[in-house]
Amino acid sequence: MNFSPHSIAPGRFFILLAVITGIAVTLGTIGWPDKPAAHSVVKDDNVRKKAPDFELKDANGKVVHLSDYKGKVVVLDFWATWCGPCGVEIPWFTEFQRKYKDRGFTVLGVSMDDSTKDHSAWLDVKPFVAEHKINYQIVLGDDKTSDQYGDVEALPTTFVIDRQGRIASVHVGLVDKKEIDDAIQHLL
Q1: 137, 131, 65: which is closest to 97 by C-alpha?
Q2: Are 144 and 174 within 8 A, CB to CB?
Q3: Boundaries of CATH 3.40.30.10 in the chain?
């Protein structure tokens, strides 16, 4: 579309020009934000709640409790093999595990893949873990565990837990890698 004095009614061109100029001046005065306002990556110490303990099994049938990790910073990731955004985050968690494991950190993946009477979720999870070279522990979650953590409905849902076993941050859905990394570094 050609905006010129000849294509718009005579007085309207100058009104349009004045509106565009006004917007430009306003944006120039208040500034255009180049990033969202900064927010804390973790909750304050005094508002963190204890992460619910659980008893879940890993691929070898070993019982795992969240309390086994007390004293460590834990990324507790609820995920599933069929979840696309989960697949985006898993390489990040593998990197975090490799990068921070010697500093009192671990990732614990809670697979929410369904098990039925005739089919174990491990039939889907084990090959997925191997294919994606996951270097952290995976356990099978259940409805009880989901309920303990506020009825986890959206996947991925990731909890960053401090060394005292308290929930320091919660990330629902696919979030920026830096947001989770910042939370981890803050707690380490």
Answers
A1: 137
A2: no
A3: 45-187
Neighbours of 34 (CB within 10 A): 5
- pLDDT at residue 140 tops 50: yes
Nearest to 77 by CA among 160, 179, 12: 160
Determine the pLDDT at residue 166.
95
> For the segment 38-62, what is each residue's pLDDT rounded down to a tens digit?
345 788 878 899 999 999 999 999 9
- pLDDT band for position 10 (cuts 50, 70, 90): low
Q: Name the CATH topology of 45-187.
A: Glutaredoxin (3.40.30)
The residues pairing with 151 across neighbouring beta strands, listed in sequence order, are none
Q: Distance between the two ends of the chain, CA-based, in angstroms?
A: 56
pTM of the shown model:
0.76
Amino acid letter, 122: W
